[in-house]
Amino acid sequence: MRLFAAVWPPDDVLDHLDLALAGMRGGPSGRSATFRWSARETWHLTAAFYGELPDGSVPALVAALTDEVGGLAPYDLALHGAGLFSHRTLWVGVGGQVDEQRRLSAACARAGDEAGAWRDERARDRPHLTVARVRPGSGPPRRRSSPASTAPAGRRGNVPQEEPAAAFVRAMSVYDGPSWTVDSVALVESRPGEGRGGGPLYTVVEQVPLRADDPGMPDEAG
User: Fold this and answer.
1) DSSP assignment, residue 196?
2) Class of 2-137+158-209 in CATH
3) How far is CA 174 from the centre of its chain?
4) Is 103 left (phi over 0), alpha (psi -120 to 50) or beta?
5) Could you give the CA distance from residue 180 to residue 189 in angstroms, rounded to a whole number?
6) Is 219 helix (H, G, I), strand (E, B) or coil?
C-alpha cells in the first residue's frame, strides 16, 4: 500500500474553493490547454508521506499516529493565497494556526519513524493544497529582466505559455476561504492512475483524532 497522512478540508471549505477556481478553468470540472487540474476529491494538505508499505504494517502505523497526534489540540485553518512550485505546480496556501499544522506534520513524520515506514524527507513547512500542474511543453517562465514591453516589436505578440500560471497566482493571492477546525488526521492509501482523469485514487484507511488533554478535567490518578 502506498500511504500518506493528510488533513482533509470539509465540504463547505472545498465548495468555496471550487467556486473560486471555476472561472479560471471554465467550470468545476473543466480543463485548459495550459493546466492539468486536480480532481476535487484529491484536494488535501499532506502531513507526511510514507511510501509503499505492506498491508500488515498498517495497524502499527495507526497506533503510532494515535500516540503522536492524540495529545495535540484541535486547531483552526483556512485556505489562503496561492503560489507556484518549480514553475509547474499550482497550489493554494493556508492561513490560521499554521504553526499547529507544522506541528501535526512533525508528529506524523515521527509516527512513520516509529512504525518503520519510509517517508519523504522534505520538510512540510509550507502547508498547501495542490490544485493544478502546468502541462508538459509549456516552456519556462519569462525572465523578469526581459518584460514583454521591452521585447522587439516583432516578438511582442508571442505571449509565453507560462503566463496563465502567473495570472493564476496573482488572482488567487487574495483568496480567503472559510475557516474550519482540524480535529483529526487521515491515513490515506494512494493508487496512482486509478482516479478520475487518470489521476490518483485516494482511499481513507483510518481517521486518527486529535485528543488533547482537557485542562479542565481532573487527573484520574488524583
Assistant:
1) G
2) alpha beta
3) 18
4) alpha
5) 24
6) coil
- The residues, any chain, with a CB within 8 Å of residue 8's CB and separated by 6 or more, are 43, 44, 45, 186, 204
Strands 35-37 and 128-134, bridge-based pairing: antiparallel
Counting every residue, how long is the chain? Answer: 222
Q: What pTM was estimated for this model as a whole?
A: 0.79
Mind listing the pLDDT tens digit for each residue in 149-186? Answer: 344 444 444 544 447 788 889 989 999 999 999 999 99
Give CA separation, 80 vs 12, 17, 172, in Å.
15, 10, 8
Q: For residues 27 and 75, what is the distance between their CA atoms, to the nearest angstrom?
A: 32
Distance of CA 42 to the CA centre of its chain: 9
The DSSP element (H or E) to which 52 belongs, if any, is strand 45-52
Domain boundaries, the chain: 2-137+158-209
